Amino acid sequence: MRSGHFSRKRDLNPKSSPPQVLLSRKVDLEEKTRRGATALHLSAGLGHGDVALALLEARASLETKDAQGSTALLVAASRGQVVSFKRLLEHKVIHTNRL
User: Fold this and answer.
1) Distance separating the N- and C-terminal Cα atoms of the chain
2) Contact 29, 40 (CB under 8 A)
3) So where are the chain's domains?
4) Residue 30 contacts residue 60 (beta carbons within 8 Å)
């Protein structure tokens, strides 16, 4: 991975690039792929709930939409990634209640 960029799905795999390593590289959390997906969209869709949670803690936005108009929460749900979906939803509920 280039410093400050994520370029491949493997960059978001917790086995090859733990969340702490990804975030220590100061990745632009809102950088998008050609299809409009952010690192949060990709990690949620691939079922990497720990990575998704780390991205959220680093202030990645749950409201960002990809080119199809889907948020990371919808991507996780549509791909059957139950653990990712639950973590994203719990994070949203916790942070919504703080307001």
Assistant:
1) 36
2) yes
3) 9-97
4) yes
* Domain made up of 9-97: CATH architecture: Alpha Horseshoe (1.25)
Q: What's the rounded mean pLDDT across residues 37-65? A: 91
Q: Cα 58 from chain centroid?
A: 10
User: What is the predicted pLDDT for the residue at 1?
Assistant: 38
Continuous H helices in the chain = 19-24, 39-46, 49-57, 72-78, 82-97
Residue among 3, 11, 18, 9 at smallest CA distance from 53: 18
pTM: 0.76
pLDDT over 60 at 17, yes or no: no
DSSP 8-state symbol, 91? H
